[in-house]
Specification:
This protein has six helices and seven strands. By secondary structure, the chain is of the alpha/beta class.
């Protein structure tokens, strides 16, 4: 089983509001993960969690990162810790990547084994989504501090880069 892990906890200070509340990004990102091959999706909320929750489809799995203001690392840790024991891999995606579609997720999912590490690249530059096999979760959780997420862990391990520059730009949107 492969789960989508949507990180949507940040305050979006440069955006002027939490990115989970921008346009249809939250619901769209859930759809991107599902349509891209994830068996289920867990959304990690933080800033304005209760307001963001009202935007979610009925029955959507959610966890709140109480220490969300620490940075992306807090969201990643709580998300991985919440996924069930039957999940073999997590596809980590960010809510502020509106041009990344299901085709990108599908390419990453189909190009990697569920036990490994893979990430989308855009014209050779690593980005999101990132597939993290269960065997790597403890290491990623230990390394996920501040706003670095899994970056340090991924830099020291064999990660399959999956070129997706023909499908999307992969740029996060920080300002309106």
């Amino acid at each position: 089983m492969i789960s989508g892990l949507l990180l949507a906890a940040g305050a979006g200070r440069r955006m002027g509001k939490p990115k989970a509340l921008v346009d249809d990004w939250l619901v769209r990102s859930i759809g991107v993960l599902r349509e891209g091959g994830c068996d289920d999706v867990l959304v990690v909320l933080g800033a304005s969690a209760e307001e963001a929750r009202t935007l979610l489809p009925a029955g959507q799995r959610v966890v709140v990162a109480e220490d969300w203001n620490e940075g992306m690392g807090a969201s990643l840790r709580v998300g991985l810790e919440t996924l069930g024991p039957d999940v073999q891999a997590a596809v980590v995606h960010l809510v502020d990547l509106p041009d990344v579609g299901a085709d990108v997720v599908a390419r990453v999912v189909t190009s990697a084994s569920a036990a490994g590490l893979a990430r989308a690249a855009y014209h050779g530059v690593p980005g999101h989504p990132v597939l993290i096999g269960r065997d790597h979760w403890d290491g990623v959780i230990d390394a996920a501090v501040g706003d670095q997420g899994a970056r340090r862990y991924l830099e020291t391990h064999d990660v399959r880069l999956v070129e997706c520059g023909d499908l999307a730009g992969g740029d996060d949107v920080d300002r309106r």
